[in-house]
Amino acid sequence: MNVLIYGQVYKPNHRECLLDVLKAMEREGITPFAVGDYWAQADPEIMEYQGVTLFKDFVSTPIDVVMAFGGDGTVLGAIALVNEHQIPVMGINLGRLGFLSSIEGKVAGFAVTELSQGRYHYDERAMIALETDADIFHGSKVALNDFTLHKRDTSSMITIHTYINGELLHSYWADGLIVATPTGSTGYSLSCGGPIVFPNSGNLIITPVAPHNLTVRPIVISDTSVISFEIEGRAESFLCTLDSRFEAVTSEHKLSVRKADVKARFIQLNRYSFLRTLHEKLTWGKDSRN
Questions:
Q1: pLDDT higher for 46 or 191?
Q2: Model pLDDT for residues 107-158, shown as the tens digit of each residue
Q3: Of the four, 123, 166, 257, 290, which is 20 to 30 A from 283 by CA?
Q4: Which one is predicted more confidently, 224 or 135?
Q5: Cβ count near 143 (within 10 Å)
Q6: How confident is residue 192, by pLDDT bands cut at 50, 70 and 90?
Q7: Which residues, in sequence order, are bridge partners of residue 34?
């Protein structure tokens, strides 16, 4: 089995976790590869560990699993890297909240053993795809969490005319608008008052960012819908994002999002469940007073 070690920013708390993982891979006969930019930031003890090969590309190096070390942003980066290849990702949480990186760093070595022994299951998540005539987001126009439109270079709100299957839903006067997947419902959308939606529920969530009209609320629609947009504002350009990637667009650009043809695949340990994640990350079912 070939496993790619992926990360974005190496931090001191990564050292012990990576050493545990490398020792577990050695015991289990797993061949480790590492992303060069991340590996170059590591401590000398990590960089000099025997048996780790720097990763070049998916053509010359067949990868079975990507282990993403960091927070949810790192997992999103790993998904963007592999979504065209349908390689499963195992998220190791070395950040803060960690909805996507569901395996805590302190048990990463144990997770490698479980992976080697086949004691895991796949968790498939729906993604969204951007369709546009703009020359943006080269390489991949797919996102796991969300697509957003946002004001840029001005304090004035913008107007986003939003259509569902060609029919006007609403003209949002707001700072921006979020279209989230069920996976992304616990991200930016949740921070803006959107609902938590269970994975694989077959929905998309439209959440306004600081809407001027107080009667406007987040809305949940079927993921068979096509959502299109027209943007107006005082600025010449606006911010458009797919997960952590961003581009500038203008009011001339045609933009629409729909459910993607590809899915993200996560490797979860057998004890994992979404309810358990809610309990652990949001402390649901716990009373700190007792």
A1: 191
A2: 999 999 999 999 999 999 999 999 999 889 987 899 999 999 999 888 889 9
A3: 123
A4: 224
A5: 30
A6: very high
A7: 5, 54
In whole angstroms, give the CA distance from residue 60 to residue 58: 6
| Per-residue b or e along 57-79, where b marks 16 or more CB atoms closer than 10 Å to that residue's CB | eeeeeebebbbbbbbbbbbbbbb
Residue 1 to residue 62: CA distance in whole angstroms: 9
Topology adopted by domain 2-119+270-282: Rossmann fold (3.40.50)
Catalytic residue among 72, 123, 175, 243: 72
pLDDT bracket for residue 284 (50, 70, 90): confident
How far apart are alpha carbons 132 and 258 in whole angstroms? 11
133 is catalytic: no
Question: Nearest to residue 123, comparing CAs of 97, 94, 103?
Answer: 103
What's the confidence (pLDDT) of residue 43? Answer: 85
End-to-end CA separation in angstroms for the chain: 46
Residue with tokens 């005319």: 161
